[in-house]
Design goal:
The chain is 51% helix and 8% strand. It is an alpha/beta fold. Strands 4-3-1-2-5 form a five-stranded mixed β-sheet, with helices on both faces. Helix 1 links the parallel strand 1 and strand 2. The longest helix has 32 residues. The relative contact order is 0.16.
């Protein structure tokens, strides 16, 4: 069975999970604990960041490389069109989504969790002990602001990222106005990348992530609740209902993650 080394709330991990589900491939999720788990992952693969896909004795790193590998080794339900123009557009949109929605979305989500204690607590996996949830909920907002500046997430950087994301969502809404998918009548890697990466802007309706049910359909204020972008998120959720396997009703190996084993 394929194994996906991941973080449950990593939007790049979600991109790969959506791709695997779209292709109908069974896989086991292995949750990599930040810090010590990353050390073990580096020992195995030379890579500290998730996602990493293991197929037999092979480790494939980076969500884009994983998508290309799966299309080559598991060609059913191809991700990348063969038509030259559509292929070029697909790869261009996928790369843009990684660099725009993926990176800027993290900044927008950081701002949201800094401002809302309940939202911050609710983002923890459902298996998190209550005492840890209480500690994280109680972290002062000012401390998180200082922490954000320290990692390059200053208020001005976050403001700029949110403005860019609003433009991105407007553009995507326009592109999908008269088409079921970004490249026409058939889904592609472009759709799955955009949809998977957008989870941290607004969580999908449905039990797809190990999060409290109360967070379904919730997300970054000003983006998730903006009626101008509702058509995009409705499209995203329709795509999820078509292709993403929910946690409930799936086999244990493919639903909830197991922790990485440390030797």
């Amino acid at each position: 069975m394929l194994e996906l080394y991941q973080w449950e709330l990593s939007q790049y991990s979600e991109k790969v999970r959506l791709i695997l589900d779209y292709k109908g491939l069974n896989y086991r999720k292995i949750e990599v604990t930040p810090g010590i788990g990353q050390v073990e992952l580096f020992r195995l693969t030379g890579q500290k960041q998730v996602p990493v896909l293991k197929d037999g004795g092979r480790y494939i790193v980076d969500s884009t490389e994983i998508a290309k590998y799966l299309d080559l080794e598991y060609p059913d339900r191809p991700l990348i069109p063969t038509d030259p123009k559509k292929r070029g557009a697909c790869l261009l949109i996928e790369e843009w989504a990684d660099e725009s929605i993926g990176i800027k979305g993290r900044k927008a989500l950081f701002a949201a969790i800094s401002q809302d204690q309940n939202f911050r607590k609710s983002l923890l996996p459902t298996s998190t002990p209550d005492i840890l949830k209480t500690l994280i909920e109680g972290v002062p907002r000012d401390f998180l602001t200082v922490l954000g500046v320290g990692v390059g997430y200053s208020p001005d950087v976050i403001k700029s990222a949110i403005a860019d994301l609003k433009q991105d969502l407007e553009a995507l809404t326009l592109l999908l106005a008269d088409s079921p998918y970004l490249l026409g009548d058939e889904p592609s890697l472009a759709d799955l990348a955009v949809a998977g990466l957008s989870i941290i802007l607004k969580f999908p309706e449905g039990p797809y992530l190990d999060l409290p049910a109360s967070l379904q359909g919730k997300g970054v204020p000003g983006l998730a609740d903006n009626p101008d972008y509702a058509p995009f998120f409705e499209w995203r959720d329709r795509l999820y209902s078509q292709f993403r396997k929910p946690l409930i009703g799936t086999s244990p190996s493919a639903s909830r993650p197991t922790s990485i084993q440390i030797d």
